[in-house]
Amino acid sequence: MNAMRILRPILTPAVRLELAARFERDAIAGILDDTFASYDEQRPNLPREASTGGRIMVQLAALTIGLYRALVARDIADDEARTLTAGVTWRLYEKMAALPTALSRIRVRTTHDAVKRATDAFRRFPFSAPSYVMEDVAGGDDVVAFDVRRCPVAEYFRAQGLGELCVESWCNLDFSLATKWGARLERSHTIAGGARDCDFRWRVEPVRKSPDGDHSAFDRE
After folding, report:
1. What is the largest CA-CA distance in the chain?
2. I need a surface site. Which of 26, 131, 154, 175 has the fewest CB within 10 A?
């Protein structure tokens, strides 16, 4: 993948928007240059994942690390660098979730069905097997539940000694995503945080479908 040609146009608007309050435009351009320079250094050693989704996610992980390192190199405190990086990754993640979100709202009767459809779509791509290993677990009528047994992104961040960055700039984005989907994510541990798996419990409330069948008109029971 030519990151400069394909990924830079995707990353640049998110970086500019998120960093505009902290840096001048020229400084942001320099941060982007350093981000991709770091990516180029990492690229020869990136894991060769079996699935296309896995390969893309690991490449994005390398870019995340590159951005974080570019900020730290400018004497940004570690916690602020993680926060700024997470702001950028959320802007990208929100766009990535647009299609699963749209699909989840087509002719469904409950929020549970919508969340199940959205998470299933994400699990097909880009968080797809065999790079990602996930196992459905019993969760009850109001929970979409599964455990992630393998996450190549978490593995890569931890190999770089940056598990905390992964949690803040990747893992924690799912809490905001759950809110957009009308659910509440409950998760007690993550692979990036040092656990053997990630326990995803997307808890939803029963909803009543409007007479015209429009999901956007759902009312809480």
Report:
1. 57
2. 26
Q: What backbone phi and psi angles, to 5 degrees, belong to 109? A: -100, -25
pLDDT digits (tens, 9 = 90+) for 139-192: 888 999 999 999 999 999 999 999 999 999 999 999 999 999 999 999 999 999
> Distance between CA atoms of 15 and 101, rounded to whole angstroms?
23
Q: Residue 27 is encoded by which pair of tokens?
A: 């400084």
Are both 88 and 114 inside the same structural domain?
Answer: no
* Domain span holding position 201: 109-220
| pLDDT single digits (tens) 65-92 | 999 999 999 999 999 999 999 999 999 9
Report the candidate in 59, 80, 58 with the shortest Cα–Cα distance to residue 154: 58
Query: What is the rounded CA–CA span in Å between residue 43 and residue 156?
Result: 12
Judge whether 221 and 206 are in contact, CB under 8 Å.
yes
Q: φ and ψ at 120, to 5 degrees?
A: -60, -40
For residue 214, name the pLDDT band (cuts at 50, 70, 90). Answer: very low
